Amino acid sequence: MMLLYEGKAKKVFKTEDPEVLRIEYKDEVTAGNGAKHDFMEGKGRLNNLISSDIFKYLKKNGVASHFIERTSETEQKVKAVHIIPLEVAVRNVAAGSIVERLGFKNGEEFTPPLVELYYKKDELNDPILTDDHVLRLDIATEDEIRALKEAALKVNAALIKMMNMMGLKLIDFKIEFGRDKKGNILLADEISPDTCRIRDLETGENFDKDVYRNATGSLIDTYTKFYEKMEAVK
Ligand code: 5GP
């Protein structure tokens, strides 16, 4: 079927049903908006397995998403949505860009969690936005901004619970949402160690893409271990 869109980590295809799309996860990894880029055998499979199981878990915990079903090791079927060009970030602990940009101390806890909106626009390097920017850019309405933030906090609470059972701590993550034909907002894209920062509760060891960003370990081994821990608490 027709290729609709190819991103850095996934391909999106049309299906015979206009309300359903097929996503194929690629064996590619990038960081720094494509500055670092590698082929990595088995990565697409791991991201697909992990993201599918996280969306299933979120559904059980009352969070609706675009996910329909996993159809193979590297593919899933999802509901067709128009992606809202925002990354909604939730931070439980200061790490990464917020430390570099605003001078928060690495490891500082955010209680309640901090929610941020970023403009999903590669050519602008995904800048942070205020609510007023989102309104002026016609990206979302005030009610939608509120709904996105609420949904992101609900995802956060559910993920914290799951990762706790796995002996892990959720530091932060970024998610995307889309609108379906009726204008309903649905969680979309993927949730995986590519999109979250996750640390071991005891050792502080990274279970996320930081091992690739900072070249501190094998991404495939790390994601495999994460998946095994996830399977063990299912
Ligand atoms: P930071 O703003 O510190 O770079 O990243 C915050 C969190 O967002 C981290 O967990 C990181 O993995 C995730 N993240 C960074 N870039 C992206 C992206 O382009 N897409 C998604 N979904 N998550 C991202």
Automatic annotation (TrEMBL):
Q: Which UniProt keywords apply?
A: ATP-binding, Ligase, Nucleotide-binding, Purine biosynthesis, Receptor
- InterPro entries, from UniProt? SAICAR_synt/ADE2_N, SAICAR_synt_PurC, SAICAR_synth, SAICAR_synthetase, SAICAR_synthetase_CS
The catalytic activity, as recorded, is: 5-amino-1-(5-phospho-D-ribosyl)imidazole-4-carboxylate + L-aspartate + ATP = (2S)-2-[5-amino-1-(5-phospho-beta-D-ribosyl)imidazole-4-carboxamido]succinate + ADP + phosphate + 2 H(+)
| Gene3D superfamilies, per the entry | ATP-grasp fold, B domain, Phosphorylase Kinase, domain 1
Q: Where is the SAICAR synthetase/ADE2 N-terminal domain?
A: 3-228
Looking up SUPFAM superfamilies in the UniProt record yields: SAICAR synthase-like
- Pathways involved: Purine metabolism; IMP biosynthesis via de novo pathway; 5-amino-1-(5-phospho-D-ribosyl)imidazole-4-carboxamide from 5-amino-1-(5-phospho-D-ribosyl)imidazole-4-carboxylate: step 1/2
EC number of the protein: 6.3.2.6
A molecular function GO annotation: phosphoribosylaminoimidazolesuccinocarboxamide synthase activity
Family listed = Belongs to the SAICAR synthetase family.
Recorded protein name is Phosphoribosylaminoimidazole-succinocarboxamide synthase
Native source organism of the sequence: Salinicoccus halodurans
